[in-house]
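FORM 7B: Structural annotation worksheet

SECTION A. Query
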Amino acid sequence: MRSPNDSATLELPGIKPPPVTKKRGRPALHANAAARQRAYVARNGIVPMTVQLPEALHAEFMTWLTSKGKKQSTVIAHLIRTQLLRKR
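SECTION B. Predicted structure
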């Protein structure tokens, strides 16, 4: 089979190239997963933040998260909003 922009290769006589079919489904909005993630972060105004914790505290926090079924980001954001940024 020859590519559409190959001009050096000849077609075999009597053999028809397969018809070009249209891609099915919805067209993709983003090129890949990284572009989709960048768009999500930009759309929601999310800023990544790194926190360093002692191992014991991290293990205890992760155990608590799994038992409650919550995500790290939502818990930390709630704590900052209610405990650190509250009016005094």
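SECTION C. Observations
Helices lie at 33-44, 55-68, 72-84. The chain has three helices and no strands.

SECTION D. Sign-off
Analyst initials: ____
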